[in-house]
Amino acid sequence: MDKETLDPRCVGDAIYRYRRWRRMSQEVLSGLAGIGRTHLSAIERGERKPTLETLYRLSRALGVNMSDIVVEIEKELKNKAEK
Questions:
Q1: Which one of 3, 27, 57, 77 is least enclosed by Cβ atoms within 10 Å?
Q2: CB-based contact 58:68 (threshold 8 Å)
Q3: What CA–CA distance (Å, rounded) separates 32 from 20?
């Protein structure tokens, strides 16, 4: 069995990039997603991994498909592995 794990920093980076692309503050995005701003901040810093429900809420608030965020996470993981 593969022992690779999901790097929470890659998740946070992907969400951060989408948030900046949409020109939203953490306060606005967290409010639209119905989560706390400190929780969002911890996700973006890679200190917490979002649940699927939270990832779904964030994607809806950002106006993108959840799968788009997952694709970005996978790209980040691949780039990190190649380094």
A1: 3
A2: no
A3: 15
* Spatial CA neighbour of 37 closest among 29, 46, 45, 49: 29
CA-to-CA distance for 2 and 5, rounded, in angstroms?
A: 9
- Tokens 């959840």 sit on residue: 66
For 2, the token pair is 């593969």
What does the pLDDT look like over 4-36, one tens digit per residue? 778 899 999 999 999 999 999 999 999 999 999
- For residue 53, the 8-state DSSP code is H
pLDDT (tens digit per residue) in 35-45: 999 999 999 99
